[in-house]
Description:
Strand content of chain A: 15-25%
CATH architecture of the largest domain in chain B: Orthogonal Bundle
Radius of gyration of chain B: 24 Å
Number of strands of chain A: 22
Strand order of the largest sheet of chain B: 1-2
Shape of chain A: globular
Oligomer: heterodimer
Amino acid sequence: MQGMMGRLLLLGGALCVVAAAAQAEEVKRGGTAVIHMVSEQGVLNPALRASTGVYQISGKFMEPLIDKTYDGYVGVLATEWSSSADGKAITFKLREGVKWHDGKPFTCDDVAFTAMNLWKKLLNYSTTLQANLEAVDCPTPYTAVFKYSKPMPLELLVAAMPDLGHPVPKHLYEGTDILKNPYNQKPVGTGPFKFVEYKRGEYIIAERNKDYWRGKQYPYLDRVIWRFIPDKAAAAAALEAGEIHESGFNGISMEDMVRLSKDPRFDVGSKGFENNVAHSTVEFNLRNPILADIRVRQAIYHALDIDFALKTIMRGYGKPGRGPIPSTAGANYTDNVPTYAYDLDKAKALLDEAGYKPDANGTRFKLKHRPAPWGEYTQLWGEYYAQALKKIGIAVELVTNDAPGFLNGVYRDHDFDTANGWHQFRADPAVSTTVWLRSGAPVGTAWSNQFGYKSDKMDGLIDAAAAELDPAKRAGLYHQVQKLEMTDLPVIFAIEHPFLAITSKKLKNHHNTPRWDSSSWYDLWLDQ
Amino acid sequence: MSLPVPPLLTYTVRRVVQAIPIIILIMIGSFLLIKLAPGDTVDALVGDMGGADPAFIARLRAEYGLDESVMVQLWRYMLKLAQFDFGWSYVYEQPVITVLMSRIGNTMLLMASSLAMAFTFGVALGAIAARRAYSWTDNMISTLGLVFYAMPSFFLSLLLILIFSVKLGWLPVGGIRTIGAFKTGWADVADVARHLVMPTAALSLIYLAFYMRLMRTSVLEVMDLDFVRTARAKGAGGARLMFHHVMRNALLPVVTLLGLQFSTVLGGSVIVETIFSLPGIGQLAYTSVVKRDLNTLMGIIAISSIIVVIVNVVTDLVYAWLDPRIELK
């Protein structure tokens, strides 16, 4: 009897497990996901334009060699990678049996062609990354060997690949003017979705790739449509009306974001943006003798109530910055750095010590400040900065411009005392971070050291880290970079924040990788 | 023996020929004005991408011809324009003429429906208000007109979206068609019409208020004139007096305003098209300014100035038809 009961219980238990598994995997196929985009993209080729706006769309058509997941780096078009002992040859094993959307096979020829002609010559950030790339050999159709004239850390190349490692089909690009190639606007890739139509100012349509290499069951969706809605309030209304399913990269205003986060129909959060972390910054022009004094820069840091800004501007989505490398950077990050707590008395004392006493009106000196127009965060952070500095007797004049005006004013003309914008971290400090601190950047290069900061020690650390092959030693060098930056303060990397997305709960498996909006969405499905 | 040329034709041709130097001046002025704005399309592009290295930026500038002096760029542009070549849009990566042609239909549709609605209802309501001057009806119409007049179009647009799309779910939030529905024939026409209801309302209400107030004043004025009294004495009653004698004369100032306001409606469409994400010229103008897409912007200015010139000529012709005393010289 007891045996029978036991068996029944066991059977019941087994059934429960089966039922639970079935429920978790009960994927509904078909349907169309409609995604909000704020601005249009002229070029839909991620091997020509490294930009999240491009990846958001092109990521569904074109796949990188390696992608980043919550379990680390995983192969997409590559399956294995290794480096020679001297770091001058990096070998990728490529996935076999992958076809381009036009039916031609994907091979090493495509990788070699793209690397030499697009990644090395035309792709922003990649031209610097691949500057020492001499050749890509194809010993077999599915083996690509990258040859470098100077050692290339494998860790750096792998970290850069999800963004800067999309091959294009050689047979459609070879012998053409690559920049004017029509396939830049109607991409042909290997991804789970095929490009159908781009109606300028309205939408882009993608349809299911029936021949996707991950298997016949993928992708689950029939179609993906991106709708261009430039007005953020209208986009929020479209979400509420159920016309669009997702808006990423802070596509609607924070006010609407907070309001809709209480609506049970939506998921709001920063999950899925760990790879796209940005810092809200304060940038100093060290050519100004007042700001050249380290005590003044320290005083300004002490005058900023970071927690207040986090609560009011970022609505709690973010954390205080600890120098140029964000906490999501893995081993290259350390929080063992000097910090500057909110302390007005200390700030005033430092300014007194530097010799800037308040006049009759309580003003010590004036600064011309340029806030970047990168949306709500930077605008409000600039306004907060001006208010905060008033409290310690620094008068701040805000000079507002649109994007081209700001970039020229700060990075080319150096016509500013302080500026605030953001620094976007791209997987590895060597990709887009160390240029903020290394001296010798040509005048006019946006997002580079145009602050007049020059430190031989800093330059030495950056150069050593870029060529260091041992990951542990490399991480140690970047910790030193972080400490030195927090000591010298050429820039205040005040707040670290990921982007935010709002997603309809009808979408399942959403934001399940650290660069989800840029990824291929082969496992996304719609519950309707 | 020479063929008699109708005066209407000579007038029209002369007006069009006169417009050419004006358009050239507009183009040169706009070009220089846009060049005065800090930064160029490469800066905007790089800002959009989140940064790029100097080699990339220099290569793009050379590619777009932005490394030349402003005067050389202007000269090149005008030379191309003389051959009706609007150039290449580096933002859309298409010829400017393709970009413009795909948009102009939507804007014309929006403008025509908005102006038609504003004109018809404005004139009708204005006439009714004047007929019942200082009555309860008049007060109501006039107050409503004032509300429409005072309401900024961006606010009205969002209000309409909130009520009719979010709360009631009757009308689509934006766009020109239901994307992915691939409707054809009358179903497509109905779909487009549904998408145009709110933008048309948002764009037309302010002009409706204009025409209404003007028509009301104008009718009141004409009704006091001698010929109306004569007509009334002859026994012309109610409807005939109103339509044949009063309104035809009262319409003159309204038509003048209609012609003048055509260009401001074009301006107003920038806001309405942006909020309703309607792919028209107005929305294109907005994104082109933000992205410093010089060629597209210049193309829009050229097209707009041509449209405005044509409308002005047509207005003059309508004027002469309404009032035979006015001669076209």
